[in-house]
Amino acid sequence: MAVQPQEIKLGTRRVTFPSEYLQQLEDSNHCLNDVNALHQEMQTKGYLYLRGFHDREEVLQARLEVLKYLKSTSDDILSSKQPLEMGVLKQGCGVGCVPFMEGKNVISHADPVRKVLEGPRPFEFFKNYFGGREVRTFDFKWLRAVHTEGFTGAHVDNVYMSRGSKELLTMWTPLGDITADMGVLAMCEGSHRLPSFAKFQEKYGNLDVEAVGLKGTGWFTCDPYEITDKFGGQWKTTNFQAGDVMIFTMRTLHMSTVNLTNLARISCDTRWQPLADVADPRYIGDFQTPGTKFGLYSTDESKTTSDNTMEHYRIKWGF
Ligand SMILES: O=C(O)CCC(=O)C(=O)O
């Protein structure tokens, strides 16, 4: 069935989806029984979009658990006029209204949530993907309920977690049916390998934002046009269904669409690697929840030129 074009926001830009600029993602489900084909897809696109990967009912149970948790923390987050499972935010619930749920905590590791994030499906998938080697996932979970107007700017994950396995992959799991106007991942296809991104990857992609004490989010930009104008690639996204996942490399540039609705956008990123590889110590074992927060929970300093801001580095790198 053809998708009706709709006006959404990708970072700072209003865009029509689907359109030439922001295309529909194609899934890689046809490769699921052929590990070489999965590798080939990852190599070509920089990601694997897999539909119906998790059990839908289990995902909806995990979502409900998160909503119950949010309700238990404060009466100011969710509207009591609507059924809890809808996840309707109270009017005015913006930045800072939804509690920080990243790390290893009562909700990131609640049974229904763990059942999805660390269930047999991802373990089997990654073991197969990594050629039969045993795998591990970080204890740290990037569990989020994104408020109205919230979004994630364009970045590669390598800037946050480059101190371990070179084969590390991200799996992004939407907890619920999440349409493009609620805040979904958009992938810049080819950004991990195209020669036009070589300098971007060498300079920005190799930055360890914590080691340099970067101020701000760690995002390269909030403007998707800047990426395609300067480096090329193709932005793609989709309306996600509960059960779908997006798996991608540490070098694949991605961002999210803006949550234009009054619904909490609940999702979690998890990380996977071969067990025998070194794991980034910041995210396993008895880590401390980071004092420095990057990404969504930081202030956007991308246009500030003072030392150690992204703008400072972009000028230094000649971007
Ligand atoms: O959920 C988001 O908004 C961003 C997720 C992300 O950047 C990631 O999975 O690496």
From TrEMBL:
Any Pfam family: PhyH
InterPro entries documented for this protein: Phytyl_CoA_dOase-like
Protein name as annotated: Phytanoyl-CoA dioxygenase
